[in-house]
Amino acid sequence: MIKVAIVTLSDKGSRGERIDITGEKLKEMFAEHKSYEIVYYNMLPDTFDVICEELKMLADNCIADLIVTNGGTGFSKRDVTPEATLAVIEREAQGVAEYMRAKSFEITAKAMLSRARCGIRKGSLIVNLPGSPKGATENLGFIIDSLVHGIEILKGEAVECATPMKK
Predict the structure, then answer these.
(1) Is 164 within the bounds of a domain?
(2) Measured between alpha carbons, how far is 147 from 142 in angstroms, rounded to an integer?
(3) How confident is the model at residue 141 (pLDDT cuts 50, 70, 90)?
(4) Among residues 23, 44, 58, 90, which one has the fewest Cβ atoms lying within 10 Å of its Cβ?
(5) Residue 138 within any structural domain of the chain
(6) DSSP state of 62
(7) CA distance 77 to 14
(8) Distance separating alpha carbons of residues 98 and 93, to the nearest angstrom
(9) HSE of 72, CA atoms in CB hemisphere, 13 A
(10) C-beta separation of 113 from 145 below 8 A
(11) Of 1-10, 53-62, 150-159, where does mean pLDDT reach its minimum?
């Protein structure tokens, strides 16, 4: 099983002012797929340092093989998810982000506005998804099957964690 962490990035959501519809939709998609198990969920504000720490904690403590963020990939000054992702990954997985943008572009020209990044830290793949339920589920739908192969390869090469943390 591929262990999945979902991290929603929303200032309003983290203050309890907005329900996380996108996170719930992503949970449903992973639950329907036989290869994935959701092991962690959190909602955080759009804050660079907070996002970096969360991504590092999840990867470095072997909590998840796949860390999926949603939100913070647009043009707003508060949208810093791609920058936080680039700050913590060791290697980019450019093809994943490029494929999501290309497939999204078949649906809407606004896909060119996505700044999503994807990459590897330790034994975890980090994937940035849009914050909207429609955009996030479409993008995850484009890649969910193909990621299985890549993550299985990554898991086979991952170093063992000294003490895996629980959620």
Answers:
(1) no
(2) 10
(3) very high
(4) 90
(5) yes
(6) T
(7) 17
(8) 9
(9) 30
(10) no
(11) 150-159
Measured from the Cβ of residue 109, the count of other Cβ atoms closer than 10 Å reads 8
Is 92 domain-assigned?
yes
Which tens digit of pLDDT belongs to each residue from 8-54? 999 999 999 999 999 999 999 999 999 999 999 999 999 999 999 99
Q: What is the dihedral of CA 15, 19, 21, 27, to 10 degrees?
A: 70
Mark out the alpha helices in the chain (DSSP H runs).
Answer: 11-14, 21-31, 48-60, 81-88, 94-105, 133-157
Which residues, in sequence order, are bridge partners of residue 68?
A: 6, 127
Strands 66-70, 124-129: parallel, antiparallel or unpaired by DSSP? parallel
Domain count, the chain: 1
**CATH number of the domain to which 148 belongs:** 3.40.980.10
Separation CA 20–CA 2 (nearest Å): 23
Please state, in angstroms and rounded to a whole number, the distance separating the CA atoms of residues 66 and 120: 9
Residue type, 156: G
Q: Is residue 167 part of a domain?
A: no
The closest alpha carbon to 99, from 149, 126, 138, 62, belongs to: 138
Tokens read off for 74: 């647009």
In the block, tokens 């093809």 appear at 95
User: Domain limits at 46?
Assistant: 2-157
